[in-house]
Amino acid sequence: xxxxxxxxxxxxxxxxxxxxxxxxxxxxxxxxxxxxxxxxxxxxxxxxxxxxxxxxxxxxxxxxxxxxxxxxxxxxxxxxxxxxxxxxxxxxxxxxxxxxxxxxxxxxxxxxxxxxxxxxxxxxxxxxxxxxxxxxxxxxxxxxxxxxxxxxxxxxxxxxxxxxxxxxxxxxxxxxxxxxxxxxxxxxxxxxxxxxxxxxxxxxxxxxxxxxxxxxxxxxxxxxxxxxxxxxxxxxxxxxxxxxxxxxxxxxxxxxxxxxxxxxxxxxxxxxxxxxxxxxxxxxxxxxxxxxxxxxxxxxxxxxxxxxxxxxxxxxxxxxxxxxxxxxxxxxxxxxxxxxxxxxxxxxxxxxxxxxxxxxxxxxxxxxxxxxxxxxxxxxxx
Length: 382
Prior knowledge:
- This protein is α+β, with helices and mostly antiparallel strands.
- The protein folds into 3 domains: 12-195, no CATH class; 216-266, SH3 type barrels (Roll); 275-356, Alpha-Beta Plaits, CATH 3.30.70.
- The protein has 11 helices and 8 strands.
- The strands form 2 sheets. A 5-stranded antiparallel beta sheet has the order 4-3-2-1-5. The protein has a 3-stranded antiparallel beta sheet with strand order 6-8-7, covered by helices on one side.
- β3 (241-245) and β4 (251-255) form a beta hairpin.
- The longest helix has 32 residues, at 38-69.
- The termini are far apart.
């Protein structure tokens, strides 16, 4: 048996209701008389729906806009503004479709009706795209009452919603023109699978970029450390890659798929951008431990970049092999100042220990010579 052909879609003109169905029973006899003149009938329908479209736009939409202007937000005003055009053209073009069907055109009636309905769909596609962008920006506004979406994720979500609206609108347009979209969708699925295998690395980076934007493990300007050893300031977050600027002013471009599978240490994360630096210092055994703590505390308090809140502190950590191990901890405002601050603290600590007479231990090696070469050892008498 040969496979049965796909079901064909009936012309849209055959599915339109008759204009007489919208009329009251008292006007139907008079309309039957006008129906004897199809061109006049179509012209009357077109004029009536044009007037109806103007009434809806002038009265209903305008009153809705007045009510929206009294609200505290401009969101409803923007939505109503973008609905004015599609509402007007939907009513007017639908009336033209009824007029074309009632005019009994000698040829091309279905083509005209399909074209008019397609214009309605295209108007709604554009309006829905604009409205979706407005809603996303309203939900991503940090000053708004309902802050649901991260501001950085708005571009990708805007693109996704617009693509969905475009796909649904294209599907409806195919149905309007009597084209069965099942075969098109099957072909698109096969092509999508082939493209997915061919560009799996690119797609992995794109999906990772989307999840990075949605999860927000770091932001622009943050200092991050990756488990692969890279450290730098985030200068760009894209859909395919993230760029880090190191302290040597070297820009590193990392694929998002690599970052998404890495352990990320965000030095600028948390409730603030402050960072704690730790200075490990050793003092010789026999030193006055209270004096060591006081000197280190004074060093931290005298440094201009060590914050007073949280206050710096000194802790004795261990009895080392050749020293008493202390640790000075202080907070700085920005992670990028860590290297410079540690350098200055080491310099100040060395000078302070020298002034206070505190010895910093260092490795000492004693060499014992058992026998000098070329020298005969003296003989012991019997």
